[in-house]
Here is the input.
Amino acid sequence: MDAPLPLPTVSSRAPIALFVYNRPEHTRRTVEALAANEGAAASPLFIFSDAPRTPAAAPLVDQVRAYVRTVTGFAQVTVVERSANMGLARSIIEGVSDLTGRFGRAIVLEDDLATAPGFLSFMNDALDAYANDPRVLSVCGYMYPVVFDTPADTLFLRAPHSWGWATWKDRWSLFRPDGATLLQELEARRLLHAFDSNGPHDYTRMLKDQVAGRNDSWFVRWYAASLLADRVSLYPARSLVSNIGIDGTGVHCADWRFDPFKVSLCDKAVRVVAQEAAINERLEVALARYYRKVGLLRYVNFAYRLLDRMLPVPGRSEVRR
Here is the structure.
């Protein structure tokens, strides 16, 4: 059994939970970008390292663990090395529960997310600004590559996002692990169309696959619980997070020849002003157009992956590694 986490360092900054597995180069880039953030030196960092799922994964897991033991630049660095493989979903559920239980809030990252220098400031400012607004489920650092016709630095969306996010203890308590019950409630309340309309993925299929054991997504259950509770999430109008892992190296992420999620990181401070947690329907229209584009590119990328398997190009697989 893994040892309990140490008592938290006293800090006004939210703790950061970083979940790593077997990608040493992605992990290094993620940590270096995070350490370059304003406020990193005042932030406690907890790195959760999952154990190898198979013997073949052990060498890369060992490389990651050797690296994260050397990480500095934060108020406190605690490395939690799991003794048995938990998988991403259980790792995140237990890690976030631990930190929100101890600190009341947490910022959450995975090992393939490069952050802008203003990411931590935005997260902490938003966690403070909406700490007492229960309608706000989470704060999200990633924003789709959509140009919004608005002067505001932030906006609310109905669906949360998993690429660099934060929440509070009372909001995380809304998480419900039973996907089957969530699916039944969405169906009973006729919310499946809304469930699929608030993002670029087929979330109903994702949830059904989770229930059937074909995936173990924690995120689709988090989103389902949010929709059923009528919560919203805060986002920056320009992204503070870039996913550097859409290259086929991740356990849960395929290679996209044409990446519709690629963004240019926001290079300025994002101003957070507490406001009513309301959806701007005009901005939702712009997002709906983008979601349709992602759906089209999903088929294009799938076709390219089929062609790659049927007609391999010399050297291409080496580049992707």
In short: The domain at 16-174+231-320 is CATH 3.90.550.10 (Spore Coat Polysaccharide Biosynthesis Protein SpsA; Chain A). DSSP finds eleven helices and twelve strands in the chain. The chain has one domain: 16-174+231-320. The CA atoms of residues 137 and 233 lie 5 Å apart.
